[in-house]
Amino acid sequence: MPPVKRVRKMAASWRSVLKKIDDYRWEIPKSYKAGMRVPGLIFASEAMLDNIWEEKAAEQVANVAFLPGIVNHSLAMPDIHWGYGFAIGGVAGTRVQDGVVSPGGVGFDINCGVRLLRTNLTESDVRPKLEQLVNQLFINVPSGVGSTGRLKVSEKELDEIMVKGSRWAVEKGLGDPDDIPVTEASGCITGADPDKVSKKAKQRGIPQLGTLGSGNHFLEVGMVDEIYDRNAARVMGITEIKQVVVLIHTGSRGFGHQICTDYVAMLGRAVKKYVIELPDRQLACAPVLSQEGEDYMAAMAGAANYAWTNRQCIAHWTRESFMKVFGKSRRELGLEQVYDVAHNIAKIEQHTVEGRQHTLCVHRKGATRAFPANHPEVPAIYREIGQPVLIPGDMGRCSYVAVGTETAMKETFGSACHGAGRVQSRGAAKRNLRGVDIAKQLAERGIIVKAGSMSSLAEEASEAYKDVSDVVDVAQQAGISLKILKSVPMGVVKG
Amino acid sequence: MKKEFEILNHTADIGIIAYGSDMKEAFANASKGMFSLITELDDVEEIEHRDIELTAPDLESLLVAWLNELIYLFDVDNILLKRFEIKQLSETQMKARAYGEKVDASRHKLKLGIKATTYHMLKIEKNNGSKVQVIFDI
């Protein structure tokens, strides 16, 4: 008899595996892979599934279902694409009591997220000064590979930042106290312990505070293009088409990357110690209530708070740039913060699953929290409309603001999509767009782009991404988020 | 000349496949490949060196730890490294010296920021020479 093949071949098509629940919900049955503790559930349109299957992102959803203590489903948002351990767009809730936390469910860029500011300016106010504004932003907000910040913080200050989050920046005069309540978790999750963060992480974190970074991070001046829900938009201070807004997308920089690196190594050892069976090393994890799990949560909280401080500082310099270019005060410009959300994070939350209340560690990796109206964690001013969900697209298309729903609360631990998701590798994007001047192409459409490395712009071109509108529409049809408005870019600063 | 490394394109990120007559050379070429993603190595002079000693539970973790150590050095020390002497290498520990220089914005073009080395699709092969494959999160 020939030896039994141990390597299981992936089915050629999703059609023989995925069970259609409805047009936007696709289940991976528990029987798909021995070891899955719960089924997988992918929010997607049928048209998206070929791609998701081919790049093995669905396989990753199945792998996450191995995590001890996971409840309900291993979930994937409509922007799902391949990631490390968890797919990007992956959401998993594990019981705190007997479940695990996995750094792979948060990602290397801990608390990568988005902040939205509004202005009372309109396109016609900004267009004549757009180039000057983008240049000013490029000067005021350090960006690009190897960039260092304008802030010179000591190790002691870094420890304070880890514990205080956004509030640290506001106390230093970098921002407004009004920004705090309209930041997820008020810009600070509790439990951060600087002693659980390595010297190396601190060394990487100190010089990079207040920097945008590189890759897909950006600072975008945009204008409102469509409003779908006038009332909710008004609550967010957005009342008209062509009103100018600012999106800031960045995270915890080298600080978070090093913390993730350190803890993937540490929890790789914990997996052996606690005898946890995993199909992928990158899913390294430890019980939430073990020493290793608690240490990771304490370090991750420090990185999350650093990221909120980072976006707080960048928002402040963004305001300064507007004030300089337009010669007006912040109040005159109406430069208020609409909201700030994390899309790479693990948080301890209360959820009802199959009629039972659970304290869960909710991992959102490339997924945005999307709590409904009346949830106590939604800021008072948004209590009646639901939590704003910020969904940026690529630099050539558009971005959305949505709100969370009861359906999200019931089905996805209050989570929705976070962006577009890549469809092309950087190399392929560069090859396909060889000789194409992306900046010039965008300029012809009225979009000014300034990047540290103009040659790497092709890697971030629209062609490399899914259309965010398709992603947001799936979330809308499935009912996990509701569109409020759409914005389009005018000026973009890239790393 | 024998191929030292090649670039592996992946949807969201990028990786390296490195070759060597032995594992030491494959490790050295993997790090060289990684720095070739960060900058043009031809522009980098060998002015300084760094000595690195690492231990890890197994060879795969050691490769990840080695590349992560270099990412850390680049981030904190702003040093671009181009030549790597792997002096000792076992399944669980290594000693190496890396040569390069500090970033000089007037001469060096920084192309790509690397967040970390991952275990995804990580491969280490030892037959007819050595071959390693890694993917970076960028």
In short:
The complex is a heterodimer of chains A (495) and B (138). Chain A has 495 residues and is of the alpha+beta class.
Verbal overview:
The complex is a heterodimer of chains A (495) and B (138). In chain A, 32% of the residues lie in helices and 24% in strands. In chain A, strands 7, 8, 9, 11, 15, 16, 18 and 19 form an 8-stranded mixed β-sheet that branches. In chain A, β18, α15 and β19 form a beta-alpha-beta unit. The radius of gyration of chain A is 22 Å and the shape is globular. The N terminus of chain A is likely disordered. Chain B is α+β, with helices and mostly antiparallel strands and 138 residues long. In chain B, the strands form 2 sheets. In chain B, strands 1, 2, 6, 7 and 8 form a 5-stranded antiparallel β-sheet that branches. In chain B, α1 runs parallel beside α2. The termini of chain B are far apart. The model of chain B has no long low-confidence stretch (mean pLDDT 94). At the A-B interface, α7, α9 and α13 of A face α2 and β6 of B.
Radius of gyration over C-alpha positions of chain A, nearest whole angstrom: 22 Å
**Dominant shape of chain A:** globular
Q: Structural class given helices, strands, pairing of chain A? A: alpha+beta
Give the overall shape of chain B.
globular
Helix-strand blueprint:
The complex is a heterodimer of chains A (495) and B (138).
Chain A: E1 19-22, E2 25-28, E3 40-43, H1 46-54, H2 57-64, E4 74-81, E5 88-95, E6 100-101, E7 113-122, H3 123-126, H4 130-140, H5 155-164, H6 166-171, H7 199-208, E8 218-227, H8 230-235, E9 243-250, H9 253-273, E10 286-287, H10 291-326, H11 330-333, E11 336-342, E12 344-353, E13 356-365, E14 368-369, E15 388-391, E16 399-404, H12 406-411, E17 415-416, H13 426-432, H14 438-444, E18 448-451, H15 468-478, E19 481-494
Parallel strand pairs in A: 3-4, 18-19
Antiparallel strand pairs in A: 1-2, 2-3, 4-5, 5-13, 6-10, 7-9, 7-11, 8-9, 8-19, 12-13, 14-17, 15-16, 16-19
Chain B: E1 5-9, E2 14-20, H1 23-38, E3 48-55, H2 59-77, E4 79-89, E5 93-102, E6 116-117, E7 123-126, E8 130-137
Antiparallel strand pairs in B: 1-2, 2-8, 3-5, 4-5, 6-8, 7-8
Helix pairs in contact in B: 1-2
